[in-house]
Design a protein that fits this description.
Helix content: over 70%
Radius of gyration: 26 Å
Oligomer: single chain
Order of helices and strands: HHHHHHHHHH
Strand content: under 5%
């Protein structure tokens, strides 16, 4: 009687894996892990949970392995997404810093008498991301359009200001160096504010990570005191409930702090 259940479990797991892989490939860059498109991820987890319950129903003796693995696997997946968001935030901050440096360098070269084309070529040599902009100027294409296209890169949204300054200078005859100097001053002021906000949020993020790690400390203390928290959490139904709820609350707290921080940074 267990063979049909085993076949159903295998099929369900395969569908869940296929949907997860397809979701990962189709997912646009920079999209949040909880958004309007999260239905596919929810369906993936639903299939995985169904597969796990199917295995438990077919082989009750394996519940002590399947249920903890499901809880730890889910926590690991969500934790990895939080880590990826943190890395993406750092990459975006680095790109933003390079945008500011490029604006300052471009303004300095224009003030020194360099033609815009030469200045852009020097920028592209320093930061290859701007190579399409230099190429657009070289062939007589629309430089502001190339800058706006690059501004879609996470952290490069300030390139829209550079594109606007370039376009206004081209249409009005105003000095390009003067317009870009103003953009650079605005970016310096904006990044100063962003650093202040980041420093204020750092303490909240550190506190959230500390609180999320406290259960591990309690786990170690319980083991050192002669108890068996591992056996309780992994081999008893009450332990499974504690494990799942504890992981859920810890990760929910981390996500909540990150959501608040993102809303502050966007605001």
């Amino acid at each position: 009687m267990t063979e049909p259940w085993g076949a159903l479990a295998a099929v369900t797991v395969s569908l869940g894996a296929a949907l997860a892989v397809g979701r990962g490939r189709a997912r646009p860059a920079g999209a949040g892990w909880l958004n309007s498109r999260g239905g596919h991820a929810g369906a993936t987890w639903a299939l995985v949970i169904v597969a796990a319950l199917t295995v438990v129903a077919a082989h009750p003796s394996r519940a002590s392995r399947v249920i903890p693995a499901l809880a730890l696997g889910g926590a690991g997946a969500i934790g990895w997404r939080l880590v990826r968001q943190r890395r993406a935030r750092h990459r975006a901050a680095e790109v933003s810093r390079r945008v500011l440096e490029s604006c300052e360098q471009l303004a300095a070269e224009l003030v020194s008498g360099q033609p815009p084309g030469n200045a852009l070529e020097h920028l592209a040599a320093t930061w290859p991301t701007l190579a399409p902009v230099a190429a657009a100027h070289r062939v007589g294409a629309d430089v502001p359009a190339a800058l706006r296209h690059l501004s879609r890169t996470p952290g490069a949204h300030d390139l829209r200001l550079l594109a606007a300054a370039w376009q206004v200078s081209h249409h009005t005859g105003q000095g390009l160096s003067t317009a870009i100097e103003r953009v650079a001053r605005d970016l310096v002021a904006g990044q100063r504010t962003e650093r202040l906000i980041e420093s204020e949020l750092a303490s909240a993020r550190a506190t959230a990570r500390l609180v999320a790690g406290l259960p591990l400390l309690a786990w170690a203390m319980g083991s050192g005191a002669g108890g068996s928290p591992v056996g309780f959490l992994l081999q008893t139904p009450a332990g499974w409930a504690c494990l799942a709820s504890g992981l859920a609350f810890a990760l929910a707290g981390l996500w909540w702090i990150e959501a608040i921080a993102r809303s502050v940074e966007r605001g």
